[in-house]
Specification:
This is Lysophospholipid transporter LplT. By secondary structure, this protein is mainly alpha-helical. It has helices at residues 14-43, 49-75, 78-97, 102-122, 124-127, 132-161, 163-181, 198-214, 216-247, 253-276, 286-301, 305-337, 340-367, 372-399. The chain is globular, with a radius of gyration of 21 Å. The termini are far apart.
Length: 400
């Protein structure tokens, strides 16, 4: 008589360690590379408007390629997709350090990041099971945000020495990510044999988006994570505008440190969500999204430096507690319906479209000379009203 081993496998198995290591290195490189490339543009006296164009090119790649990267992630072994995507990032960084067009090189990095994301999140459901998926998401989010924090500080420090030294470090880090991906076991494709017809892929992507949008839980996830990242990128620029006006402190050091406090808070919130929330209790995270918006409004209405650090850490904690369970829910239900890769691709499309829209609204608000406090209140209020409204709709449907 054969017996079945039902002993739960440890979360930090070989595959999970490899995925987490690769993700840390890849996110570190992405964060540091922005500052390194910006340093090259400044050194070569590119116009000021070109600086924001870098960020736009990175985001546009996510939006344009969203219909295709989900199928790529589900049609091949996800570990190998991650390896190739990091290789594309390495190529883009090498183009920049080689003195070629920095915009082309940075666009390649954006393409690599776009292909990497669905595979990174989709693989978690293949190497973990059950409630370990929430813990795995918490680990990945914490690793990502720690990498962003460290990468930003390292990138800013290295650029002051030499932009090309910073670029060399980025190349080395991306190469390390490729090596880490090699240690991920070769898993079977989730959906092999799919047709590679561009029109069909766009229609299939639209169908996947429709399926996910029609599901009550994944709709909340899509809207919630999109608002989170849209608000996050807006807050980054808002701090640069708010600090000299509210705190009377010039320069970029203080906004950078304040952004770092948000990242630290998100790591804490992600860890708390991994411990206290399961797939059956995902709705517990929604009030944190509402409180995040309230926190932004409270933040812009005060003018104390020490209080600013504390409030932004709390905002980050709310953010981490909010986004990890929503990511987990989308991956879980997406895997059951349209495939985890396709689900994350739809999510990336929504998140980056929201980022572009919010950056556009922010730019318009600044152009018409809207007071910075009013801008913060509007964006914080948008978060509160949007998440609160969707939550009320969800509660009514559950009661009905």
């Amino acid at each position: 008589m054969t017996t079945i081993d039902v002993t739960p496998k440890p979360l930090l198995n070989r595959a999970m360690v490899a995925v987490t290591s690769a993700q840390f290195l890849s996110a570190f490189g992405d964060s540091a590379l922005f500052f390194a490339t910006l340093g090259v543009l400044i050194q070569k006296a590119y116009p000021l408007w070109s600086h924001s164009t870098l960020q736009m090119l990175f985001i546009v790649a996510y939006v344009v390629l969203a219909p295709f990267v989900g199928q790529i992630a589900d049609s091949f072994s996800k570990g190998r997709v991650m390896m190739v995507a990091n290789g594309i990032k390495l190529l883009g960084a090498a183009i920049i350090i080689g003195g070629l067009d920095p915009f082309f090189g940075y666009t390649l990095v954006g393409i690599g990041a776009t292909a990497y994301s669905p595979a990174k999140y989709g693989i978690l459901g293949e190497i973990t099971h059950g409630d370990q998926l929430v813990k795995a998401n918490g680990l990945i989010e914490s690793s990502t945000l720690a990498a962003i924090l460290v990468g930003s500080l390292a990138g800013g420090w290295l650029v002051d020495i030499s932009p090309y030294l910073a670029l060399a470090v980025c190349c080395a880090v991306y190469a390390g990510a490729v090596v880490a991906n090699c240690f991920i076991p070769r898993l079977q494709p989730a959906r092999p044999g799919m047709r590679w017809n561009l029109k069909e892929m766009v229609l299939r992507f639209a169908d996947s988006a429709k399926v996910l949008w029609n599901d009550q839980g994944t709709r909340m996830s899509l809207v919630g994570t999109s608002l989170f990242w849209g608000a996050g990128i807006t807050l980054r620029f808002l701090l640069i505008l708010w600090v000299p006006i509210a705190l009377h402190i010039e320069g970029l050091l203080t906004p950078t440190l304040l952004n770092a406090m948000v990242a630290v808070g998100i790591v804490i919130g992600a860890a708390a969500a991994a411990k206290w929330i399961t797939l059956d209790t995902v709705n517990r995270c929604i009030p944190a999204g509402i409180l995040l918006g309230v926190g932004v409004v409270v933040f812009v209405l005060q003018g104390s430096l020490s209080l600013s650090y504390a409030i932004l850490m709390v905002i980050g904690i709310f953010g981490g507690f909010f986004i990890v369970p929503l990511n987990t829910l989308l991956q879980h239900r997406g895997k059951q319906t349209v495939g985890a890769g396709n689900a994350v691709a739809v999510q990336n499309f929504g998140e980056n479209t929201a980022m572009l829209l919010m950056l556009g609204l922010y730019t318009l608000a600044v152009k018409v000379d809207m007071p910075v406090v009013a801008i913060g209140c509007v964006f914080g209020g948008l978060m509160v009203v949007s998440i609160g409204g969707l939550w009320l709709v969800q509660l009514r449907r559950q009661r009905g």
